[in-house]
Please model this.
Amino acid sequence: MGKPILVMEMISKSFPGVKALDSVNFTVYENEVMALLGENGAGKSTIIKLLLRFYEPDNGEIRINGEKIQNYRVDSLRARFSIIFQDFITYSLSIKENVIISDLKKENDEDEVWSALRYSGVLTYFKDKKITLETNVGKEYDDNGIELSGGNRQKLAIARAIFRKADFLIMDEPNSALDITAEKDLFDKIKILYKDKGIIMISHRLGNLDFVDKIAACLYGVPPKRSQKKTICSFNFIASSNFFIKLSSFISSVKSIYLIFLILPASSFTVDSMPLAKFPCPVTIICILKHS
Model:
């Protein structure tokens, strides 16, 4: 295990009438991939927005390389992150311009552009079709422009994120338009490229978990019967059994798991108990009281 490069410590965040996060703790170490899993509305986006200071926490502390993020200028902080969004965009610009827009300080470094295209997995297609860096994407402004498939558009957006070469890579469903072979190839390359850096992957797809070292699962569920308040559990927990049956079958290589519960009325769920012994690694459970 390397040094800790990102720490969230006792982080809480509320919005009017809703407590989104309460006393959340996790650490990302260098050369480590952490997955943020969970349904929509379970807190994944809130965590990312707190990291980037689009939101400020109500309580707690976030540190990067031992320094509180409030001690960084906002532009300097955000420059440490490169993000691949689920709703990725390609622009009616050249291939080169689509890539360098993430870091215009390197706009003349074509070697880096080609390298990013290679790591994203789109370079082979471009070479086969004799597509150059000056080829325009789309036909909106250029009748000779190329129309890319969804998968190749996503790879181009991934190349843009890679070109930035930030300290942290955040991937929000980065493989939504990729086939299985391209997905594995991408993850293998990214883990090499971001060695000694940190990767956070947001995903709904449990099949991605072979790629990660740590899981933070943001879940809807119910707390152990002994408590209706925030608690740390060390033995058994109660939750939707289907999720955990699937989860336990995918995590043979994962080193640790954080389960972050948004606690709603028990009557809303079919529940079952799942012993922690099912998991081959330490599990920390954080229960957050959330009123419906």
Observations:
- Residues 87-165 form one domain.
- Residues 220-242, 261-278, 285-292 have pLDDT under 50 and may be disordered.
